[in-house]
Amino acid sequence: MSWPASPAWLEELQARFGDMLRTPLERSSGSLRAKPDAYPSALLEEALPTPNLTSGERLAIYNRQYWFRLFTVLQRAYPLTARLLGYWRFNEHATHFLLARPPRHWSLDEIGAGFADFLAEAAGNGNALVDDTRPDLEPDALLEAARIDLGYHQVFRAPPVARYEPSAADAGRLLQARLRMSPAVALLTEHWPLCELRRRALEAPGEGALRLEPRLARPRHWLLGREGLKLGLVPLEPRELQLLMLLSRGTVEAALGELEEACRSAGTSQELVELPANIQKWLASSVQRGVWRGADFAP
Amino acid sequence: MRNERNVPTMKRLEASNHQRNVGGLCQIRHGISVIRRDKLAGYSLDMPPVLAPDALGLGLRTAHYRELLASWPAVDYFEIISENFLGEALPARYHLDQVKERYPIVLHGVGLNILGPAPPEPGYLDRIAWLAEHVNAPFFSDHLCWTGAHGYSHHDLLPAPYVPELVELVAERAALVQKHVGRPFGLENLSSYVELGQSTLSEWEFYAAVVKKAGCHFMLDVNNIYVSSQNHGFEPSQYLDAIDFPRVLQLHVAGHTREPNGTLIDTHDQPVSDAVWQLYRSAQLRAPRPTLLEWDDHIPPLATVLGELDKARRHRV
C-alpha cells in the first residue's frame, strides 16, 4: 500500500501542536493549570480566537485533555500505586514519566508499560518518591506496589494460554528442558500488606492517599493467576517461589541444583531432607496451576 | 476514549429468545429491525447493505459486560472501539465473542490517524480487517483527524486545516483504507475546540468533499456537529445540508458538557442534550439512518443507557 505523503507545512504544524499538547500543566497554584504562554508562538498565531477565548485558551483545552487522559490511564493501570500516593502526588510522577517517555503506540494499554521501572530508576537516582509528610510510606513499599500493579495489569491482559502438561515422553528428558512461564501468571512478593490494600482501593475508589499498614514480620509470596476471567492469588512458600523463579531462568536441572545449594548454604538439614518431596509437590502444583505454557528441550 | 481481508464468512445471526426471523429480517422484540447477517453477502463498497435505517445500537463498554451477559437486552446492534479488541487479551476476546453470537457488530476506530504524517503502523489495517471479519462487521469507521505525529501518539482526535490540498490527500488515503480492509469505510466528523487560520473551506465542505472523492462514507456524529457549531459559531443545519445522506452509514449521538467559559466538550458522560436531539430529528428528516448512542464516562447502569437510546425513537419522524 503506497500511503500518500503529507505536505511539509502540515507536518510542521503537527509538530507545533504536539509540543503544545506535551507542555506540562502548572502545579504551583495547587491545581493543574495550562500555561498558554509556553505554547509555540507560531501555533498561537495559527489558532483562531473567539470573542470569548484567546487562541491560547482554546488550545489549552487540548493540552488539559492530553494530560488528564494519560493520568487516568496510568491511575487505572497502577491503582495501588496511585492510591498509596494520592492522585495529586501520583500525577506528578506520571508527568515526569510521560515527559520522559511520551506515548508512541496507538494502544492505551502500552502507556504504562515502563512506569514501574521509571519509578525504580528515579529512586535509584536519588529522587524523592514520597513526601516527608508520609512517614508511613517507605519508597521501597511504593516500588513494590508498582510492581504488583504491573503484575496484575500484565496477567489481566494476557492472551488465552494453554497449560503445559508434560507427556510421558517429556518426563524422561525434562531435566534438560527449560520451562516457559505463562504470561497469564505473575510471581509477587510483598513486604507490606499491599495486595490486600489493592483490593480495598479498588472496592472504594477515591483520589486521596491511603495509609499503609506496618511492614510484615516476614515477606509474603504469591502466585497471581487467572481462573476463567478472574484473577486470584495463591500463597507460595519462600523456597517454592525461589524454585519457580529459577525454573523460569534456566534448565530444570540447573534450577534444582541451585535450589539445593541454596538450602545447603542456609544450613537447615531438615529442609534438605524434605526438599526432594517438596520439589515434587511444588512442580506438580505449578503444572496444575498453569504456571507453564511449554518446555524447550535441548536438541 | 476513547485497539485482515477477504470475503466474509456469512453466518446467520442465531435467533435468540428475543428475536424472531421475519422475511429476511431479524425482528427484535420491540419492533426494530436489522438486516440479517446472511443478507450482507455480496455487498459492494459503494452501496453497502447497511443496518436497517431504524436500527438503534449502543457502544459496547466493559462497564456493561456483566449486565449484558445476564440479560441480553433488546438492542439492534453494538459498536466496538476497534483498538480495544486488536490485542489478544482474553477478557476482551471472551466478551466480544459472546456478544457477536447474538448481535450485529460494527467497528469504530480511534487510531487510524488518517491525517497524520506517517502511514498506519505495519499490520494495523490487517488487524482491523481481521477484526471486521471476525465479527462480520457490515462496515467500519474512524475519524477525520490526526492522532499523532513524528513518532508520538497523542491519543486525542485533533483538527487540521480544511484546505483543498488535504481533501486530495485524505481522500486518497481513505480510498486505500477502504480497499485494504475490504468493507465500507465511514469517516466521522470531529468535535473541535479550535479553528486553524490556514483553513479556506468550512468543515462540512471539507468533509463532504473528502467522502465524495474517496468513494467512502459518512459516519455522522450529530453531537459533534452541535458541539463544534457552538464552539465555532456556525449554524448546524448548514452542516447537515452539505451531507449526502444516502452515503451516511450511521449517526452517532452522545452527551456533552459545557465548561464555565462556555466551551462545549464532547465528554460522552451524560444524557444527550435536547438541542442535539432536535438536530438529530432534523437529520432523520433528511433520511432515517441507524443510530448509535455513545456513553464513555460516568457510565450509568445498562437500563439507563437503554432508556436514553430509546429516546431516539421519540425523536424520529
Architecture overview:
- The complex is a heterodimer of chains A (299) and B (317).
- Chain A has twelve helices and five strands.
- With 299 residues, chain A is mainly alpha-helical.
- Chain A folds into three domains: 64 residues, no CATH class; 129 residues, no CATH class; 57 residues, no CATH class.
- Chain B has 317 residues and is α/β, with parallel strands linked by helices.
- Chain B has nine helices and 15 strands.
- In chain B, the strands form four sheets. Chain B has an eight-stranded parallel barrel with strand order 4-5-6-7-10-11-12-15, surrounded by six helices. A three-stranded antiparallel sheet of chain B has the order 1-2-3, with no helix packed on it.
- In chain B, α4 crosses α5.
- At the A-B interface, α1 and α3 of A face α2, β8, β9 and α4 of B.
Q: TL;DR?
A:
Chain A is mainly α and about 300 residues long. Chain A contains 12 helices and 5 strands.
Layout of secondary structure:
The complex is a heterodimer of chains A (299) and B (317).
Chain A lengths: L7 H15 L18 H6 L8 H23 L1 H7 L1 H14 L14 H10 L14 H19 L10 H4 L6 E4 L4 E5 L3 H10 L16 E8 L2 E7 L1 H12 L2 H15 L2 H20 L3 E5 L3
Antiparallel strand pairs in A: 1-5, 2-3, 3-4
Chain B lengths: L18 E4 L2 E4 L4 E3 L20 E4 L5 H7 L5 E5 L8 H11 L4 E4 L15 H12 L4 E4 L2 E4 L2 E7 L5 H18 L3 E4 L14 H12 L2 E5 H11 L3 H6 L6 E7 L2 E2 L5 E2 L8 H13 L4 E4 L7 H13 L3
Helix pairs in contact in B: 4-5
